[in-house]
Amino acid sequence: MPPSCCGYLSQYTHHHLVTFLLTFFSYVLLHASRKTFSNVKVSISAQWTPSIQNDSAATFSPGETWEDNRLFTDEKQATLFLGALDSIFLFSYAVGLYLSGVIGDRVNLRYVLCFGLCGSAAVEFLFGTLTEWLHIYNIYLYCGLWVLNGLLQSAVWPCVVAVMGNWFGKTGRGFVFGLWSACASVGNILGAFLASSVLKYGYEYAFLVTSVVQFAGGVVVFFGLLTSPKEVGLSLESETRLSPVETDTDSHRPLMSDEEDEVKAEVYSRRYQTVQQPDEPLAESPQAISFCQAFCLPGVLPYSLAYACLKLVNYSFFFWLPFYLSNNYGWKEAEADRLSVWYDVGGIIGGTVQGLISDFMGKRAPVLAFSLAMAMGALVGYSRSPNDQVINAVLLAVTGFFIGGPSNMISSAISADLGRQEALRGSQEALATVTGIVDGTGSIGAAGGQYLVSLIESKLGWMCVFYFFVVMTGGSIVFITPLLLKELRAMWRDRRALRHQL
């Protein structure tokens, strides 16, 4: 029986609390600024297309208008470009994740994290605020800035997950990381409210507010974050009463190992050696694992592919939900922004509850598979939502629970499990690299999906978009099926062994 979460949390100190809050709010601010772009798409589309067509256009070139500073001739072209920008961002974000994870295991995590936060804030200010103030409308400039923004933002997630993994061990990780991974959803909610509150002054002020707040948060994190207990002269054992051997050796046993006796023997052997050799010098700092070695670790590839399908769906809601609500139901942009937060509310609850359940079960894959199967039904139900804001909000929360919850688990708790699994034997540093691989692969899937969403919507309509989401969610289940079967067999053997003991 796993220890109770309350008993486990009581072992933490104020260092854990500060680390939890600083990493949590650093990603909250990053996602708030990222959410701004999706929340103001209607305003940007209107700004980039002419509001008054030139009646004498036949005398001139067909596309000429009274407003020659506009980028596109109609809203459909602007929508396609917005989808292309989402894909550009996510592709560069994915490439950056593969790189930043490797860098994070070799450079001080605090430096990499703050560089990503402050640099991204500066780029978003240039993209959304300065270009509008100076009336600079250029497709190539927008694309270049958004590529740079994706690269800079990619430095944040592997670093915050690695810092959390340094401070929090295996026991209770599903609950702790499930609660902590709500940072993205909280950031979405914060970004939606910040954007809607200043949108009446112009979309450039939404970018201004979120970028300034994010830059200030980066400065606070630089001076206040401790990336490891070692920085204050503490070890994982003294902080949580869990020895490093226990944490490293048993960190991913439910997912990666079926041979419990072998693992227990290994743990016992190491404890015995520690007792018999008290004067043995401390081991050197773990060496960073290579990218290829991390990619070949057990479980990394299937979870990465599953996350590629799931993140496509999750980020499609992230990027397109306010736009869908405004265009499909005719609701005002500010109303659509506020209503969209219910998807994130569901994701917050889902990630925490499902993480807690996985801790008590000692398994992750069965919880994921059940939630994803329910998500397929929730997507079909939401696609048929009536033009009623209350019903829509309820269906959104349910959909977020079953999609956002598994997404949060894979990107945080499971990534930490994979980066601390028994195969590493505590001798190599892989947490940031593995996190970058999982999230980077997920971002590649999400990047391709964003342009497909805009293309499918323009050709076939929103209903076909939701059918596309159902197929992708089913793909996630397919990729985790081998791990699911492995864990179910392990559970069956455990129960049979328990019956024999009784």
TrEMBL record:
> Among its keywords, does the record have Secreted?
no
Give the domain of life: Eukaryota
Q: Which residues belong to any copy of the Major facilitator superfamily (MFS) profile domain?
A: 19-488
InterPro entries per record? MFS, MFS_dom, MFS_trans_sf, Sugar_P_transporter
A cellular-component GO term for this protein = lysosomal membrane
User: Pfam families from the xrefs?
Assistant: MFS_1
Instruction: Write out the transmembrane intervals.
Output: 12-30, 80-103, 109-127, 139-168, 174-193, 205-226, 305-325, 365-384, 390-410, 465-485
Compartments in which it is found: Endoplasmic reticulum membrane; Lysosome membrane
GO molecular function, a single term: xenobiotic transmembrane transporter activity
SUPFAM superfamilies according to UniProt: MFS general substrate transporter (SSF103473)
Keyword annotations from UniProtKB, A to Z: Endoplasmic reticulum, Glycoprotein, Lysosome, Membrane, Sugar transport, Transmembrane, Transmembrane helix, Transport
Membrane topology, from the record? Multi-pass membrane protein
Q: A GO BP term, please?
A: xenobiotic transmembrane transport
* Residues forming coiled coils: none
The similarity comment for this entry is:
Belongs to the major facilitator superfamily. Organophosphate:Pi antiporter (OPA) (TC 2.A.1.4) family.
* Protein name (database record): Sugar phosphate exchanger 3
Origin species, per record, is Seriola lalandi dorsalis
Q: Which taxonomic lineage does the organism of this UniProt entry have?
A: Eukaryota, Metazoa, Chordata, Craniata, Vertebrata
